[in-house]
Amino acid sequence: MRKITLLSSLRQGSSTSAEAPLTTTPSVPPGLGGPVKGPGAGDRSVPEGVVRKTVKLLAGRGGNIRLGKFLSEYEKKFGSSFVARDYGFGCLRLALLSLPGVTLTTDRVWLWSCRSCGMIPDPATGLCKCETV
């Protein structure tokens, strides 16, 4: 309706400056992302306890796990779920990439050795050699 009004006023040669400018607002369909809302939306940091649990899980699995299996294994082992949106991230991949020593390939989550001491964290504690001393 608005487009028709603007076109007809242009054809008549009148000025459109009296009308409000057209603006576009991005609309995101439900379930396809959008602005991240929640308690950690501004700082984007994963709590230390969740970081330790993630490191324990990865170290116990030989340093890597399939990305698709990560969430189910985390929930099974710790009785809670890793919800990336709760920590200010739009998706699991971004949250995992923010963790120290963790990297991703196409389909796997990898735990690398500590940059300070060169040791892979202990599966029982989630701490490396330099953090336990």
TrEMBL record:
Signal peptide: none
Start and end residues of each HTH OST-type domain: 51-105
Annotated region described as Disordered, given as residue ranges: 1-46
Annotated Gly residues bias: 31-41
Pfam families on file: OST-HTH
TM spans (from-to): none
Residue ranges, compositional bias (Polar residues): 1-18
Name of this chain's protein: HTH OST-type domain-containing protein
